[in-house]
Amino acid sequence: MKLFSSVNDVPDVQLLVKEALRLKQNPYAHKDLGENKTIALVFLNPSLRTRMSTQKAALNLGMNVMVLNMDKEGWALELRDNVIMNGTAVEHIREAAAVMGQYADIIAVRSFPGLKDRDEDYNEVIFNKFVEFCGVPVVSLESATRHPLQSLADLITITELKKRDRPKVVLTWAPHIKPLPQAVPNSFAEWMCRADVEFTIANPEGYELCGDFTKGAIITHNQHEALADADFIYVKNWSAYEPYGKVSPVSEDWMLTNERLKITNDAKIMHCLPVRRDLELSSEILNGSSSIVVHEAGNRVWAAQAVLKRMLEGLG
Ligand code: AN0
Ligand code: CP
């Protein structure tokens, strides 16, 4: 594997999930695979889970790890070609990415969307420039439109904890005070549409995700209807795709409470984290036995380790 940016980069999703679950049982079985190989984790935005779980995964495989917090410690990057760099940008992404490729065997990048120019975000301009110029395999640590390591960890979690062969999985929109990316829900939808689950998306009017990611899903504006008989409920806020990056007021209350879970099939509650308590999701749910958000975050290690193992095997 030379690129991990979406589910489309994975030839066999079920096999990758099995590999991750094997690694969870035996984390150090491939300690020699990453010997004398280096990964650079490059963050253009903040992170807790992605940073720590990917670092741990690389260490479990015996790799050397370098972390660069580009947003705080790196030079401001210019992305455009054919501009005179007399503004705030100090270094062009062409040189920056190429230089990183001199130091690392694999580069992993976090590059959030600006949420202003939809074409720029959905064409993955920043992430693709890293891929184009660094010259080594690249892993997405959440790009403008997708968060594949999160979605893989989510599928691992559902596979581990499901109580029936084809569980009902519901992605529900939740309130927030800021416009957030569509990357996590896009990616979750894309992976669920490839998994053996019954998949429903519930969102208020005006918050439809881009149709490219949701083919095969049932989509409704009625949260109550969606929750009936659900086995897993994935809670996430996102801003509108159209008008892009905007947040319009929602009159109904979309925050989940224990009362609302009564009609589910004893559903487990998932969230990628970080979560704002009692705004996106009630504390009573987060503190209770239906929440699996910490278990889910734990599985980020095995998702990253399965992907890095595949990449290392391809390095030769
Ligand atoms: C980010 C998002 O929604 O994409 C990162 C989630 C992993 N969340 C926030 O900015 C709060
Ligand atoms: N879920 C997730 O990616 O968390 P971080 O933003 O803290 O890495």
Textual characterization of the structure:
By secondary structure, the protein is an alpha/beta fold. The protein folds into two domains: 3-146 and 300-315, Aspartate/ornithine carbamoyltransferase (Rossmann fold), CATH 3.40.50.1370; 148-297, Aspartate/ornithine carbamoyltransferase (Rossmann fold). Helices cover 36% and strands 15% of the residues. The protein has helices spanning 13-25, 49-60, 70-73, 93-103, 118-122, 125-134, 148-161, 183-192, 223-227, 258-261, 283-286, 293-298, 300-315, and strands spanning 3-4, 38-43, 64-69, 77-78, 91-92, 106-110, 138-140, 168-173, 198-202, 218-220, 232-236, 268-270. A five-stranded parallel β-sheet has the order 1-7-6-2-3, sandwiched between helices. A five-stranded parallel β-sheet has the order 10-9-8-11-12. Helix 2 links the parallel strand 2 (38-43) and strand 3 (64-69). The structure holds N-acetyl-L-norvaline (AN0) and phosphoric acid mono(formamide)ester. Residues 180-181, 183-184, 272, 274 line the site of N-acetyl-L-norvaline.
